[in-house]
Amino acid sequence: WPAHYCDAAQGYMTWNCNRQPLSSGPFMLKEWVEGDHLTFAKNENYHQAAEGKPHLDQIIVQIVPDDTSRKQQMLNGNGDIDMWVNENTIKDLEGSDTVKVSISPSDRWVTRLWLNTAARGTMNPSETPHPILSNVEVRRAIRSAIDVDVLTEEVFNGYAKPVWTEFFREPFNSCGIERPAYDPEAARTALEAAGWTDTDGDGVRECHGCGTAEDGTLMELTLQTYAGYGEPMELSLQLVGEQLSAVGFGTELAVIEDSVLWGDFESGGLEQNGDFDIDMWDDGYFGTNPTDFIWEFYSSDAAEPGYGWNITRWSSEEFDALIDSSYTLDPAAQKETFCKMARILDEQAPSIMLFSIVNADAYSARMLNVQANVNDIVTWNVADWDVK
Question: Which of these, 312, 301, 282, 309, lies nearest to 120 by C-alpha position?
Answer without folding.
Answer: 312
